[in-house]
Design goal:
Low-confidence stretches: none
Distance between the termini: 19 Å
Radius of gyration: 17 Å
CATH topology: UDP-N-acetylmuramoyl-L-alanine:D-glutamate ligase
Largest sheet: 9 strands, mixed
Oligomer: single chain
CATH superfamily: Ribokinase
Strand content: 25-35%
Length: 268
């Protein structure tokens, strides 16, 4: 099975706080540098779970971009897309419960144009995962729409992750629902905040509702989370779950998410 993902490839700087932030002073923390980005995470987990995986996106020509690519390729993912400009860097602050907040600089990823999309990158694709971040503005929105059309021509399924409740709110929930109606994805992944902002399921798509430690609803099939011994970092858990669902369904999805939260970082 070839899983293609479209979206961001980033260099992640993860800071796990071991005490409350002391404003204007030092705070002890554990730090971790890794490849990341929602689409890249899904591709890496898909590869780890036994699928072929190919990432599609525009990445930086600088050192940050090169490090991110090396990290993704080392996990068995094919990387395709134009190279130009500044690589994306995301700083994730992780509190002592494992909850994370992200500070995002998406760099050149936001400039992926339709004329830069090579149809050969989707050859053999059986499932195309589209990160919601790519749908928030042109030119990446138009590029994602073009990729969906190419994938559908060869019978691929399509999934979308809503990605960010705050960005979704700024974009406009009603307008985003119209975009989803145009895309007609087979599967939509959402967390509870994204579900609330968008206003619930979209007709015609399986609705995968991620509830963190309280489990997941797989289009109405309520499942408890497979809890890790310790929740170290929730970064990327939803991406691991999405990859697991795409590759093997709900059981594999829950297993992948449990593995992800037991370690620092979003990658397998």
């Amino acid at each position: 099975m070839l899983v293609c993902t479209l979206g961001d490839l980033t260099l992640d700087v993860i800071v796990r706080l071991t005490q409350p932030i002391a404003a204007g002073a030092d705070t002890r923390a554990e730090t971790h540098l890794s490849t990341g980005g929602q689409a890249a995470n899904v591709a890496a987990w898909a590869a780890d779970l036994g699928a072929r995986a190919r990432f599609l996106g525009k990445r930086g020509a600088d050192e940050a971009g090169e490090l991110a690519v090396r990290g993704l390729e080392a996990r068995g993912v094919e990387v395709a897309g134009p190279v130009d400009g500044k690589g994306a860097i995301i700083c994730s602050l992780v509190d002592r419960t494992g909850e994370r907040s992200m500070l995002s600089d998406r760099g050149t990823a936001t400039g992926f144009r339709p004329d830069e999309l090579d149809s050969a990158w989707l050859d053999g694709c059986e499932h195309l995962f589209v990160s919601g971040y790519a749908l928030l503005a042109d030119p990446t929105r138009s590029t994602a729409l073009a990729a969906v059309q190419l994938a559908r021509r060869q019978g691929a399924a399509v999934s979308v992750d809503l990605a960010s409740w705050s960005d979704l709110e700024r974009y406009g929930p009603a307008e985003f629902r119209r975009l989803l109606d145009e895309l007609q994805p087979n599967v939509i992944f959402a967390n509870e905040d994204e579900d609330r902002v968008l206003g619930g399921p979209v007709s015609g798509a399986a609705w995968i509702l991620k509830r963190g430690l309280r489990g997941c609803s797989f289009d109405g099939d309520e499942r408890a989370a497979l809890l890790a011994a310790e929740v170290v970092d929730s970064t990327g858990a939803g991406d691991a779950l999405a990859a697991g669902f795409i590759v093997g369904g709900s059981e594999l999805a829950l297993e992948a998410a449990a593995r992800c939260v037991s370690r620092l970082g979003s990658m397998p």
